[in-house]
Amino acid sequence: MNISRNIYYRFEENIDNGTLYIYIYDEEVVIKSKEFTYRVLKGIDQGSSIEKIEESLELWYESYSKKQIKELIGQVIEFLESHNIIYE
What we know:
Layout: E1 2-3, E2 7-12, E3 19-24, E4 29-33, H1 35-45, H2 50-60, H3 66-82, E5 86-87
Antiparallel strand pairs: 1-5, 2-3, 3-4
Helix pairs in contact: 1-2, 1-3, 2-3
């Protein structure tokens, strides 16, 4: 999985308890999201496998079950793919 070209992102932890801004340069669009999405996107950007991202998120979000984390990652990936932010 890779991040598409001309995608820029930034996480601001002090805005609304953590806000991710994703800028799609070609479309001049900014999409806002939350920290969970940031952690998934950052893992993809670093070349981590989905399994490694899951392991990392299990440490960050201890109150979530493995099943919940897996489902949330699936939703985030679907969201990112639907906006052409990531691709296989």
